[in-house]
Amino acid sequence: MAAKEKYPEPTYLEYGFGELDYDVIKKELCCYCGNCIAFCPKIDREGNRPELIDYDPNCGLCYAYCPRTMFDMPGMAKKVFGRERKVDEVLGIYRKAASARARASVRAQDGGIATALLIQALNSGVIDCAVVTDRDDKWRGVPKVATTAEEIASAAGTKYTITPSVTGVQMAMDQGFKKIGFVGTPCQIQALRKVQLLEEPYAFGQEKIGLLVGLFCMENFEHELLFPHLVEGKFGFKAEEVDKFEVQKGMFRVLSGDKVKEVPLEETDEYAWKGCGPCFDFAAELADVSVGSVGSKAGWSTVLTRTDLGAKVYDSALAAGSIEEATVSEKGLALAGRLAKSKEERFTAKTADLLGRGVPVNIRR
Ligand SMILES: Cc1cc2nc3c(=O)[nH]c(=O)nc-3n(C[C@H](O)[C@H](O)[C@H](O)COP(=O)(O)OP(=O)(O)OC[C@H]3O[C@@H](n4cnc5c(N)ncnc54)[C@H](O)[C@@H]3O)c2cc1C
Questions:
Q1: What is the DSSP string of 284-346?
Q2: Do residue 255 and residue 326 come from a single domain?
Q3: CB of 110 closer than 6 A to ligand 1?
Q4: Closest Cα to atom 4 of ligand 1
Q5: Which of 270, 304, 336 is the last residue of a domain?
Q6: Where are the beta strands (DSSP E) in the chain?
């Protein structure tokens, strides 16, 4: 007992930015979601990493909110869904799987469902703004607070470049929004669920997160590698001329006007963001509703409605006629499941490799 008093169990609060830097950023575990930057005024962006701009010895918020520190997925699932995932639920817990597409013609990545659901949520008052990831003319991701359907639609399409999109949540809070919708990758959804679910003394803005739309994701890429080496280097496209990126049938494709260039997906590994390796989550398992391309026909999205809120928004979009639904094939769902499984296996191999090099990964699948 005396020893315990002398050496108390460490709490998140005792771990500050120094530990985040040492345990996560320097070990290349950081997924650059932007959560620490969003919720701590003393952390900012420096290149492609969070950087402390003003030291506060009493604060451990960044360590607590980071999805790469002490991440307990079964515990999180229990809080969100009331139970843990069963081993065979490889896409996480969901109540319904479907193929769907938006009726409006938006230049979307797949079926335009991410865009349509955020617009539905905005129009029905579930959210008062949506944090989306737009892009600049060089295809760098730009977090944006969208307050109209047009602004949400203008950010449609996948940017395969790592972006601290969660910083948009801070922008939305600064602008006084109280029911913030967010769309993003699984790590970004994990980060915001951590914000929502941690208890005092970390309760800070959690009630303002209104809706989480998750995207399926195998990995993301580093702009500084993908563009000079592949898009501009190997393919000879200027960034400004690229219309769309897509992954289809194992090929990574870049579309520019009537030209299409592609390489097998494995050949893009060298451009991948290193912090994507220690991630097990393919289907954004903690989102209210998850959307991806795999499993559905071209021009349609695979949709997994997970929570009451996700189902409410999805069903109201169907009822309003802004989206249409088709049955998702068992083959399609099985394919999505195989990708999820392979991401999980990559996570296991990566974390074992890190541990072998003396880097413990404190993430529980
Ligand atoms: C990095 C990345 C990897 C992906 N990998 C896969 C995969 O392996 N398999 C699969 O089936 N699907 C994958 N997806 C999802 C897929 O590309 C589509 O986003 C999804 O099918 C939704 O399509 P949609 O037409 O409904 O979306 P849209 O209506 O076009 O909306 C897309 C939304 O995504 C947001 N967004 C775009 N880029 C980013 C980004 N970099 N970070 C955060 N948010 C962003 C935008 O804000 C926009 O609102 C990936 C997405 C991303 C961002």
A1: -TTSSEEEESTTS-TT-EEEEE-SHHHHHHHHHHHHHTSEEEEPPPHHHHHHHHHHHHHHHHH
A2: no
A3: yes
A4: 217
A5: 270
A6: 43-46, 49-52, 71-72, 96-102, 129-135, 141-146, 180-184, 209-215, 244-248, 251-256, 259-264, 289-292, 301-305, 323-326, 363-364
Distance 106 CA to ligand 1 centre (A): 14
Distance 357 CA to ligand 1 centre (A): 33
Domain that residue 259 falls in: 223-270
Strand 363-364 to strand 259-264: parallel, antiparallel, or no bridges (unpaired)?
Answer: unpaired
Q: Whose CA is nearest to atom 20 of ligand 1?
A: 292
Least confident span in 27-36, 47-56, 293-302, 309-318: 47-56
Whether residue 2 lies inside any domain: the answer is: no
Q: What is the mean pLDDT of residues 128-151?
A: 98
112 Cβ closer than 6 Å to some ligand 1 atom: yes
Its pTM stands at 0.96
CB of 158 within 6 A of ligand 1: the answer is yes
Mutate-to-test residue for ligand 1 from 109, 279, 282, highest number of ligand atoms within 8 A of CB: 109
pLDDT in the model for residue 260: 97
| Predicted pLDDT at 21 | 94
State the average pLDDT for the chain.
93
User: Has residue 15 got a pLDDT over 90?
Assistant: no
Higher pLDDT, 6 or 330: 330
Quick one: 133 and 208 in the same domain? yes
Phi/psi at 139 (nearest 5 deg)? 70, 25
Please name the residue whose Cα sits nearest to atom 12 of ligand 1.
292
In this structure, what token pair is assigned to residue 59?
């604060």
CB of residue 214 inside a 6 A radius of ligand 1:
no
Same domain for 50 and 79: yes
Residue range 352-358: average pLDDT?
93
The predicted structure's pLDDT at residue 200: 66
Query: Relative to the CA of 219, which ligand 1 atom is closest?
Result: 3
